[in-house]
What does this fold into?
Amino acid sequence: MLRDEQLSILRDISQSFAFADDRQGKMGQLIADGYVMKDGDLFELTAKGVTAVEDHAAALGVSELEQAGVSSDRLI
It folds into this structure.
């Protein structure tokens, strides 16, 4: 189960937000768990990462697109 901080990082990536260096240190575990992949200097969500963000949004009762800003063309 992902922690709130990890979900926050996934949401930021899905919305193409930059984030502080201290949070980049936490990316290793998300990459190892298959939620995120690195593409050059950018991080992108994998299909597993998109699903995690969408599931979290659905659990909160919020539209997945409003919450995550994820579109099907961002799936990897």
